[in-house]
Amino acid sequence: MDKRRLVGRRAGLAAAAAATVVVGLAVHFLIAGDLASLVADALYTVLIYLLVGFIFPAARQYWLAVAAFAFSAMIELSQLTGIPQQLAQSFPPSRLLFGTTFSALDLVAYALGAMAVCAADVLASRRAVRARAVVDA
Fold first, then answer.
1. Fewer C-beta neighbours within 10 Å, C or N terminus of the chain?
2. Alpha-carbon distance 45 to 42, whole Å?
3. Cα–Cα distance for residue pair 42/115, rounded to 1 Å
4. % of the chain surpassing 70 pLDDT
5. Alpha-carbon gap, residue 76 to 99, rounded angstroms
6. Could you give the CA distance from residue 26 to residue 82 in angstroms, rounded to a whole number?
7. pLDDT tens-place string over residues 43-75
């Protein structure tokens, strides 16, 4: 991947990450219920995907999805230790990053978020390739 494409990819990933943070916080704070919680969890994994993609812009999308899911699952499983709960008591904003209570359903939300963002990234990448081909022609 040439430097110009890397810069463009990073810019797109950064914009998508910023939008994901805004939407994720809005869902978390403004919408109640289990469905909203699952959407927020999926968006957490989407954000991780975008951040890892920003750091490694030439990485294949499926590896980014695997990394994002693995990281999210690791955070979820760490909730079984009680450490995130203790951390949230001493520093409440940490609850947004680490959660406090384990839920196996959250793992499903993470998987769906990883698959959705991977599919969207693949589609966006294909469109970018087609657009460059038209411009170069």
1. C
2. 5
3. 10
4. 97
5. 7
6. 27
7. 999 999 999 999 999 999 999 999 999 999 999
